[in-house]
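Task: fold both queries, return tokens.
Query 1:
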Amino acid sequence: MKAQYDNIDEYIRDLQEAIASSDGQCAAHHYNLGLALLSKRDFMGAESAFRDALRESPHMAEAMVQLGGICLQRGDLDGCLNYNTDAANCRPKFAVAESNIAFVHLQRREPDKALKHLEKALKWDPKFVQARNEEVIALFMKGQYAQSEEHCRKLLKDEPNFAPAWQNLALALYEQNLIAEAEEAMLKAEKLGYEVAEGFKQALAEKKSRA
């Protein structure tokens, strides 16, 4: 939202007026309207705005990614995959789209497919936190716990307050029977606001008691 606006509703009204005065032919206004509506969790309105943006600018990869996110929000993995694939095809070296494609494959328990897209994303944006975290998860899914731990520690070196990575580290350590270290990582994740599953807490406590 622009700094001169006091609230999001005022910004939305100005965007709608700008769209009306230009006969709707401004992809950027439609896209910004979509973002503003997303911030209010108006997913239907946002979806309509992003579709309008694509009508005016059919190769706007950013709008495709946002539509993919809306699909994901309602559980439509196919839609998310399709929109992000289109975005990756429209814009060369688009790390966000490749990472989002990888996320869908992870949801489908397809780590090898995910890693292929993550390789591209991290080649183009080596510090991309989302992609780096997905790489950790993909390696874990493949049972490569030591490699998952290694990549997770590298991520945490750069992003020490990224709570999901602490929990992923805890999982990798747990699978290697490094229980004390796993517990420490889990507690760090919780301290940073991550909601750890009760099942994992119980499993960790049981292993600790048998150690």
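Query 1 returned. Query 2:
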Amino acid sequence: MRALFIGLFAALLMPVAVSAQTLERIKETGKFVIGFRTDAAPLSYLDNNQPNGYTPALCLSVAAELGAGLGMTDLEIVLQSVDTENRFDLVAAGEVDLLCGAATITLSRREIVDFSTPIYVDGATVAMKTDGPETMAGLAGMKIGVRSGTTTLEALENTLSADGIDAEIVQFSDHPSGVAALEGDAIQAYFADQSILMHLVLQKANAKDYKVLNEILTVEKQGLAMARGDTDFRLAVDAALSELYQDGTMRAIFAEKLPNIEPGLALEAMYLLAPTLP
């Protein structure tokens, strides 16, 4: 299988009409720049001032596959922090080769960047204290929090409107601030991706005082973002991911970095439907 992967790279490195494409830039500079989120635990975050989480670990494995395909045993991996405001712009500008955070694949985002084959499936849901309502409808008249600039905010607004639920949305610049507001009763519920809530709320010392509903607002496929229109690089990344799916690395990274999360039906389907090498 590895021979097929390297053979694919040989085809990708044939001369192309567009200059300064990602693979050529990596070969010229000897660097591969990975962008990672510092605040999206457990998927991507800082731990003792070092990148940690599922997607940075996954991207380091992708980088190893790419380096092998390019014949670069000394490829330098640069881990650059990004935030929700600048992450896609940095990719589009060529300052980040591969965005390895927690990025939902959407059509509007695909106007700016391209995405790899899906690497995770998540869903927006809500955390509350244990005495809170059991359904979304019970949030009527309450203050509910969500992080600004996220697909969760859009999904929440659409859900409230469609279900006729009159609730006050309070936006936060980061997830810890939202969870702190929930803990201090400034809000009665906080919305985020299920994986994030399981990490920030259910890992707390007083986790028994909280609950995360099983009611999911969205099913969100996440991918690795890269420069738009660079089909050779996208194919190379997808080929690397296919190798990692087939040799069991994807499941091993999931088990290591998300030890308290059991793969659901959507994640199992992702493994089943992952593209394969010829």
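Both queries returned. Flag for query 2: Residues 54-70 form the longest helix (17 residues).
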